[in-house]
Amino acid sequence: MTLVIENGWPRTTTWAGEELHIGGVGVRELAAEFGTPAYVLDEEDFLARCAEWRRALPDGEVHYGGKAFLCPEVVRWLDTAGLCLDVCTGGELAVAVAGGMDPARVVFHGNNKSPAELLRAVSWRVGCVVVDSFAEIGRLAAVAAEAGVRQSVMIRVTPGVEAHTHEFIATGGDDSKFGFSLRAGLAAEAVRRVLAEPSLELAGLHSHIGSQITDLAGFTLASRRMAAFLRTMEDENGVTIPKLDLGGGLGIVHRPGDPLPPRPAEVIAAVREAVPAHVRLAVEPGRSIAGPSAVALYEVGTVKEIPGARTYVSVDGGMSDNPRPAMYGAAYTAVLASRSSSAPAREVAVVGKHCESGDVLVRDLPLPADVRPGDLLAVPASGAYQRSMASNYNHVTRPPVVAVRDGSARVIVRRETEEDLLRLYV
Prior knowledge:
It is a single chain. By secondary structure, the protein is an alpha/beta fold. Helices cover 28% and strands 24% of the residues. The chain has twelve helices and 21 strands. It has helices at residues 27-34, 43-56, 72-81, 90-98, 115-124, 134-147, 186-195, 216-237, 264-272, 287-290, 324-328, 418-422, and strands spanning 14-16, 19-22, 25-26, 38-42, 61-65, 84-87, 106-108, 128-131, 151-158, 180-181, 200-206, 243-245, 280-283, 294-305, 311-315, 335-336, 345-351, 360-368, 376-379, 401-405, 408-413. The strands form three sheets. Strands 4, 14, 15, 16, 17, 18, 19, 20 and 21 form a nine-stranded mixed beta sheet that branches. An eight-stranded parallel barrel has the order 5-6-7-8-9-11-12-13, surrounded by seven helices. α6 (134-147) links the parallel β8 and β9 (151-158).
């Protein structure tokens, strides 16, 4: 069997000995030792993608978007790679602390941070808080004053740029729960209010136009609008604004035929021209680092043929470990990973075990016609927004994350147990 391993798969993925290998470890061995479903995370690939972003922006800041996937071990990888970390809740902040990240390299996002979250961030001395509303400006100023701290902040601006993506992951337009509208004058007022607070220091401006973006036009337009706004605010307020954070959102390949996203160097080249020379540029890749670095591994449980309709291949996971297809139609592919087959391909639907008709992981997927219970299927591009969005729907326990590198494997997030679930009940 010849399997084409290309974009969307970890870079160490190979087909050898009649099975798929990731990081030098075969999927049959992984399934036998760690069970399925499981997320298999290629450490070498993850670090290589971090390094590519650092090379693209050596004189700026690369903030890994922790919402894509985060655990203490990944925090340690980021520290080794020289990246900063973007968190958006108190829980993600706790993971940053547990992983030993330097608080000066942590940026705290979120459109509705609680007073307790802000107090924790200020007390831990996070490098920057991205303010998202007028209420938050006053709330943070009070917390910082009480703590005797001058807290560095960025102002999140909605630049009126519509990313061509699903409406649920587009964030740069005026009608958004995030940030201050540029067009409506709210962003300018936010600058004035931050400058008026003695306990706050304006470190920069921030924008983020959406996710799964493969066209540079949106990034380029946003960079021009944000740079022009920054210059205007400097002139009107007699200040220097030292940083411009243009967010993340760069897409990845999920299946054959998907458009190839720009490389990090191409993204930086497209936006740098608009940024004033005195301004430090920052970006926030998350999916583009974590997404292609992991593969979801499942075991087939049943194969159900419905004459005149379709064939359903049911696996031991589903929408609890990957809700994205059900939430907004995210499209994936999968391959038979545990053996070779010379059987002709037939179209099937790969579905999960949950009590929902919409629990479909991959629609209309060509798989060998002899696929059977016990086979292992591998789904690439599974490193971002799967484990982090996983749930316990139907009281299914969440899968482990297994890191692989140089022929060895280890658990970095253990599999949940039923005891974990029952521990919460009173």
